[in-house]
Queue: 4 jobs
Job 1
Amino acid sequence: MHRTAALLLLTLVAQPATGQRVPDAPRVDSSGTYFGTVVADPYRWLERYTEPDVRAWYEAEDAAARAFLGARPAQAHVLRRLAAARQSRPYVVYGYTERGGRLFYLKRLPDETGPSLYVRDDGGTERRLLAPTEIDAASPVIAGYAPSPTGAHVAVFYALGGSEHPHVRLLETATRRALDELPAHVLGIEWMPDGRTFLYRRYRDLPNDATFGERYGGLPILVHRLGTDGRTGGDAVVADPAALGGDGTSLLFVGPVDPASGVVVAAWRRETENRWQVVSVADAGAVASGGPVVWHRLTVPTDSVTSVFARGPWLYGVRFTGARMGALVRVPWAAPSRAAGTSGAPAAAERPDWASAEVVIPAGTFDFWQGGGLVAYASDAVYTIETTDGRSGLFRTTYSGVREEVVAPFDGSFADPVWEFGRPGVDFVFGGWTVGDRRFRYDPATRRMEERPAFYNPPDPYDHLD
């Protein structure tokens, strides 16, 4: 939202209330247990949107809000300014990524409530791959996508009817053809480097009041190959929480697969604990083929290490032992062989000595715990967006620990880094109080911020204010 429109909206809602009656919401005894603490949740019944009493309450709230806002003299003025601000930019582009010579991105037009997925091929011709109305008449929200490394296929994630439970549609990029070969309730997709296989989980279809652990705890990782029918249960299990030291309450994840590393990293934790318990690694080729897969343990709970990834002869991770914000460290390592062993038991003897790890970004420099969306692990360096004494800065730290601040044209705010494992530099949004946010790319070869082409930054009269 534009700053001017936001200020107008705040002015409107800050006016004193009239005598309009706002309906009360009855309290119903309900609770949940989180991290060992029982938390009262007397309004959980309001999550049952399809029940008549819940719908009636929401409709009464809506009527009260409309009556209050309609009585405000400033409402018409605010709505006009909001409409003008929304229509000022021809479109908004975000969430873009490049795969196999194709540029994928989410794009929203001024009169649209949600984005569509688009692609630009080598020639630069834009094609819309999927619009919300093509999925369902209720106009679901496209929440994200995952293109294959070759760009030949893309998985699109969307939500229906306000639900937070994800759905996936698998598309062939060239033809927009949907591939009906996935089972229901697929959760997350991580493509393998071959572009023909990917990893995923299947969540349990349970009522809305089910806990996170009941829906997602103990789920194994499966591998799917394009062209095979995964609906019949033929996809192989390549990782299971119990086999990696967890149990039925453990939440198992796999990280993005870096083609240069040749390995897959998996980690699990329990819903009631806020740190990763065990991180393991396996040969990517063995995982892609469906096994047998030997997982080698990289961490144990006392290591308190997360975000593990391989880069050449080094293994990197964020260590929280004695450091609330975390520190990026590295240890020497040798990637496991695909043929090493035949059992599924982790090889504890190969676990690195994290206590003796070399520090790359010291503790207290960047908040790895809260700032996961403000760090980029590009091929040349780690880029972090940091705020010090109220000032935003972009910092570049090489993988050996050499650190420098990127010189910006003026004091402004950095946000939304976009990066690739195999590409140097980082894209980001940068703007100021009187200069609208623009998309830039930092090129380490020239050591300069370069504004991205007009396609990424459509003109807007609000971008420069006198």
Note: The chain is about 15% helix and 35% strand.
Job 2
Amino acid sequence: MSVTERLARAIDRLLDWTEQLFIGALSLAALTLGTMQVVLRYVFNTGFEWNEAVFVLCTVSAMLMAGARGVRENAHVRVDVIHMLVGPMTSRMLDLFAYAASLTLCLFYFYCGYLFVGFAKMMDTASPDTGFKDWAVYSIMPVAMLLFSLRYLLKIRAVLLGRETHDAHAGTPLSGSGDAA
């Protein structure tokens, strides 16, 4: 196994572990906070001002992590019918194009998020509900987009190396079979 292969697998395992940890912890925190607020509000007629903001923050963060996980598991939105109409080589090129376009968009969002976090840090504002610095909260976006970008880089690498094929062409060799459907 080559050094780059070991590195790619190590990155995938690290991302896998990190995603699972954060999805689980943030989802559990959101569930706890949401349940707590409902009980406090409807049973004791009270609650915490910061609860809803932190609940939303946990939920959004967990869903962004789950989105990156969806890229890994091929659970993301894509048009499968086209792959059924074309051969395996064209299907591979379509996947490469889609992953490259997605990577470009994620990198653009990462850059924009980075700029916005810098602006929020310069403004030194904080949420009135939670007291959290806005730049720390807004950091979720560039971090998530970096995670998505790493996932798309791993997907592009897998397609280029022939380790990932579309489900419509599973088991079909890329060479010698032509590209007719």
Note: DSSP finds six helices and no strands in the chain.
Job 3
Amino acid sequence: MATDLAVTTLPAHVTSFLTSNPRYATIATINPDGSPHQIVIWYLLRGDEIIVNSRHGRRWPSNIRRDPRANLAVYEGEDAVTIECEVARAYEGEEAQADISEMARRYDTPEVAQREIARYRTERRLSFVLRPTRVHVHGDPS
């Protein structure tokens, strides 16, 4: 069963699916020539906003700065949520470093997270706050 919802807030079952396990997301952005670009990323959910983070110099952050639309897909087996988003804000510095540190602790073991956080501190990081505009639910994610 698939449903398609225009949203300003995420339904409870979607929030549960996005936060219950540290699942990866695929983010799709638009290249300058109009072609799609997709990459697997970590994310955080804060309320109804999705936080994504990257090192400067990667393609998808350049794309999203030029065209503030993105699509995220999160799935497990046949259950999936795809979310059309727009950038609400972007930031870097200590706030972005705090985001990637929180993500590392969510996705990695404590030992690996500490090692990775030390490496991230040497990088120029930026975060984007994505506001969902439409949610597509496939299967029975909860």
Note: The mean pLDDT is 93.
Job 4
Amino acid sequence: MDEMFREMLAVDSAKALAFFWDGLVAVRGRDTVSKAQMLYVSSILAHYSLVSCGSGENFPTPTTLSDIFDRFVIGVSRGETPMDSETMATAGASTLFLNGFFRDQLPRRHSTVYWDQMGQAFYYRASRAERDREKRLLMEGMAASSPSWSLRCHRLRIYLEEERLDRQYLIRPSGQ
């Protein structure tokens, strides 16, 4: 058992990024998407695959959309959460991750269309607060295409479940 955990913990961020990049390429179909956005979304999925929900990080992996609402909508309105570009981009990324990758599990409690719009609004705010031109353009692009990325993330989850179900580990540890 210890060996299995050692192998699973051997997955690094580069390996996780490549895994999600390859998956998004596989589900992209005929869509033409921005390479920068593709890398950005791959990095979101890789990050959240490696960060625990209970981690001591400033923004751990969110567990529910209600958590995102409390932190980034209520928290901003109360002045508890800053509305800077990095924080709003994190809100957009968190929304994209949950509303996209776990989309099947949400309709009983949340409107996926509403959360697509929330993700767009978070990215729009991130773009307005961003001073770096390249990051601002990326955030503007994510604001415009966030619902499409949410659906791609959903397709990716289905693809991973259906196409890679027979593999012991979806992400191979480094060196394998």
Note: DSSP finds seven helices and no strands in the chain.
